[in-house]
UniProtKB/TrEMBL annotation:
<dbReference type="GO" id="GO:0006952">
    <property type="term" value="P:defense response"/>
</dbReference>
<dbReference type="Pfam" id="PF00407">
    <property type="entry name" value="Bet_v_1"/>
</dbReference>
<dbReference type="InterPro" id="IPR023393">
    <property type="entry name" value="START-like_dom_sf"/>
</dbReference>
<dbReference type="InterPro" id="IPR051761">
    <property type="entry name" value="MLP-like_ligand-binding"/>
</dbReference>
<dbReference type="InterPro" id="IPR000916">
    <property type="entry name" value="Bet_v_I/MLP"/>
</dbReference>
<feature type="domain" description="Bet v I/Major latex protein">
    <location>
        <begin position="6"/>
        <end position="144"/>
    </location>
</feature>
<protein>
    <recommendedName>
        <fullName>Bet v I/Major latex protein domain-containing protein</fullName>
    </recommendedName>
</protein>
Length: 144
């Protein structure tokens, strides 16, 4: 789990992930190159095709929106294809939500994953990638 204070309101932050994920390519172009959408954007069952850079290597991921929770600004993305699966992980799920805090809000990323074997590392490098994107989104939106 990763927690990070955000300046941007939780509803706006959640809306970017849900309705405008392609904006991440302009917010953090060194991390995200593109996001293509299949299906109706922002609904359960929509499929997101990502091209991103992880540890200097071009990667891809295909995710399906599995769950949405407006009240808690929560989105669950299930990775169904791409570089994370196969050699590294049998399954990989990303859960993002916002938690109120006395002096602001916390952006919370949680991973649920099953490693292919015990020698596979924990996905800390992927968490670092999402931290960079989250901070980039926060800076980008608050500077507009």
């Amino acid at each position: 789990m990763y927690l990070d204070m955000i300046n941007l309101g939780g509803d706006l932050f959640y809306d970017i992930l849900r309705y405008k994920p392609e904006e991440l390519a302009s917010v953090a172009p060194d991390k995200v190159q593109s996001c293509d959408i299949e299906g109706q954007l922002g609904v359960v069952g929509s499929v997101l095709y990502w091209k991103y850079t992880l540890d200097g290597k071009k990667q891809t991921a295909k995710e399906v929106i599995e769950e949405l929770d407006e009240e808690n600004h929560k989105i669950v993305l299930n990775v169904i294809d791409g570089d994370l699966l196969g050699d590294l992980y049998k399954s990989f799920k990303l859960i993002y939500h916002v938690e109120p805090k006395s002096d602001g809000q916390l952006a919370v990323w949680t991973f649920e994953f099953e490693k292919m074997n015990t020698s596979v590392p924990y996905p800390t490098i992927f968490m670092d990638l999402l931290l960079g994107i989250t901070m980039g989104m926060d800076v980008h939106k608050t500077s507009q």
